[in-house]
Each structure stands twice: as C-alpha cells, then as structure tokens.
Specification:
The protein is of the alpha/beta class and 249 residues long. It has one domain: Rossmann fold, CATH 3.40.50. Helix content is 40%, strand content 20%. It has an 8-stranded mixed beta sheet with strand order 3-4-2-5-1-6-7-8, sandwiched between helices. Helix 8 (197-203) links the parallel strand 7 (179-188) and strand 8. The model has no long low-confidence stretch (mean pLDDT 88).
Length: 249
C-alpha cells in the first residue's frame, strides 16, 4: 500500500499553527478525503485540545520509560516498546492522533527513536493523510522520524519579522535535506497581506492565502472548546476552507 500524503504545518508560537492544523483535519473530514493520522510533534502539545480529544500518553513518556529500563520481567525492550507505541494511538471515528511530546532529559534516544520511526512507517501505510503539527525547529522531521513532506504550510503573523522567521524555518528544512514537495506561506490575523509581498517573495515561498482575526477562535481556546465545533460562518473556517481548496489533496 502506498504511504499517506504528508502535510506538515510549522511556524512560531502564537501565529495560529495548531489552529491551522486542526482546521485542515476538519476540512479533510468534511470533504471525505480519506483516513487521517494526526501527529502532534510540538513539545507544547495542544493539538488534541483543538481537536477535542483526551490523550492518555505521549511518545516522549514511553521513550523515557523504556530508556529507564522499566520493562516488565520476561519481555524484551523492543517488544515492550512496540506494545506501548501501539497503545499510544488515540483513535476516533474520523481520525487517529499520535502525540510526540517534548524532550525529557539528556541522553541518547537512538534505539527507541529508530523503533518509533519504524512504527510510524507501519502506521503511515494505513492512512490516506498524515497531518503533522510541528514545532518551529521541526525536531522529529530533522531526526528523520518523518522523512518526506508532500506539502509544507508555514504560518506567519502579518509582520515582516514573522515572514522572515518562517523563511528561516523553510531554509532549515531544506538544509536538513528533507524531501519537500510543495511549500506555501499562510498569513494569519489579517485580511490583506499585500504590504508583505516583497518579504514573502524573498523567502521563495508562495502565498497561499490569509486568515483574518476570528474572535471565536480565541473564545473557544479560552473556554477549552474544540475548534472542530466552530460554526460554518466562522471567519477562520471560511478562510481556511478557501485556502485548503487550492491544494492538491
């Protein structure tokens, strides 16, 4: 079976990166595009909150547990890790979620990371789409846990500094020799990014669209309500629906 289409979302905190990832998953579900594996690769994990699901464990916690050799008697480290990795998947009716979690102390994670990579490779073949909510440094991609990105969406606020930041993230991704198919920039918190066009051109990225300020997103975040429940006429939902419609999904 062919691997899933990988769509990675990156950008500095506070720009709407996780919001974009959650609304992309919503878009794929609403348009019946196929099965989805959501991967929260941001150490400040909150994609599950945006999606409205509870997560019992993270990959990071599992790796630490195995690294400390907290393996049941009579079971090999590899068997135990594979069992725990399988249990780490949060399954829902419309998508499954895998939360990486943040680093927890120094030391080599070579063995468990390699097993994690194999685990994701196996999972990869079971889905049509993998949507990855990344940290700015794209750690799990840089470790080659996830090697290929078919579509990279870089999220920026409407400032020259923000655009330059995502430009640097794009350069980092390319320097790591990540296989990137298409790469775009999305500007949030504005209805017009024309004043930033020169800065956007300097990054080598194409502007995919803009997302205006949406008070409902802030309200839902404050109240802990999932963005999947935003109304159809929400400015963020309308704008991202138009943006994602431009992609070859």
């Amino acid at each position: 079976m062919e691997r899933s289409k990988h769509i990675a979302v990156a950008g500095k905190g506070g720009t709407g990166k996780t919001t974009t990832a959650a609304l992309l998953i919503r878009y794929l579900i609403e348009n019946k595009k196929g099965s989805i594996l959501a991967v929260d690769a941001d150490p400040n994990s909150n994609l599950n909150e945006a999606l409205g699901v509870k997560v019992e464990n993270t990959i990071s916690n599992i790796l630490v547990d195995v690294k400390k050799n907290n393996v049941p008697t009579g079971m090999t480290k590899q068997t135990y890790l594979e069992l725990k990795l399988h249990q780490s998947l949060t399954e829902t009716k419309y998508y499954d979620l895998l939360v990486m979690g943040g680093p927890q102390g120094p030391g080599c994670y070579c063995f468990p990371t390699e097993l994690l990579k194999k685990h994701i490779d196996v999972l990869d073949n079971n889905y049509d789409y993998m949507v990855i909510d990344n940290e700015a440094g794209m750690e799990h991609i840089s470790r080659e846990t996830i090697e290929n990105v078919d579509i990279l969406l870089l999220i920026s606020d409407p400032t020259a500094k923000g655009v330059r930041t995502v430009g640097r993230i794009y350069e980092l991704a390319k320097s790591l020799k990540i296989n990137i198919g298409e790469a775009y920039i999305i500007i949030t918190k504005t209805e017009d990014a024309s004043d930033l066009q020169n800065e956007i051109d300097a990054t080598g990225l194409k502007l995919l669209g803009v997302v205006p300020n949406d008070p409902l997103v802030a309200e839902y975040d404050l109240k802990g309500k999932p963005l999947m429940d935003l109304p159809e006429d929400s400015p963020a939902v309308r704008a991202t629906r138009e943006i994602f419609g431009k992609l070859k999904l």
